[in-house]
Amino acid sequence: MAETNKVDEAPVPVEGLNHVAIAVPDLDAAVAFYREKFGCTVTKIVEVESQGVRMAYVKLADAKLELMEPLNEYSPIAKFLNRNPKGGIHHICLTVPDVAEAADGASVAGIRVLGDGKPVKGYEGQDLFFMHPKDTLGTLIEIEEPKIKNHKS
């Protein structure tokens, strides 16, 4: 029998998977791959200068794939691709009901919140933060509130 925990008692109460982010060396080729090989719907490509990426989302039933290509050599995605030239999974994003409370909970639980330890605004206005992979079993984890709560569609 599987052991379960009460989500509302967890320091970072995860409600679901938002997306899996994949760093790619050629975003246009990646978009074509998901459309042509899997028949997926892919959003329009956007440039997010504040994050140094061009990106698009592959829409799936219960989550998304976030395809990211660096805009410049200083982008964290460029650094990732220097180590992994063919690309690969960069991070996962989990949804929580309250990002500020989750950031506080992570800190109390000994999980470092990247940056200044506080949530920031994503390019669509959603609140989010990243947790240090050394504290999360080697995986870079992004935590985000649902867009509905952030009054975005």
Structure, explained:
It is a single chain. The chain is 20% helix and 30% strand. The chain has helices at 27-38, 76-83, 99-108; strands at 16-23, 41-42, 46-48, 53-59, 64-70, 88-95, 120-121, 127-131, 141-144. Strand 7 and strand 8 (127-131) form a beta hairpin. It is globular.
Question: What topology emerges from the helices and strands here?
Answer:
Layout: E1 16-23, H1 27-38, E2 41-42, E3 46-48, E4 53-59, E5 64-70, H2 76-83, E6 88-95, H3 99-108, E7 120-121, E8 127-131, E9 141-144
Parallel strand pairs: 1-5, 6-9
Antiparallel strand pairs: 1-6, 2-4, 3-4, 4-5, 7-8, 8-9
CATH topology of the largest domain: 2,3-Dihydroxybiphenyl 1,2-Dioxygenase, domain 1
CATH architecture level-2 label of the largest domain? Roll
Largest sheet: 9 strands, mixed
Beta percentage is 25-35%
**Number of separate domains:** 2
- Determine the N-to-C terminus distance: 39 Å
Number of helices: 3
Spell out the CATH superfamily of the largest domain.
2,3-Dihydroxybiphenyl 1,2-Dioxygenase, domain 1
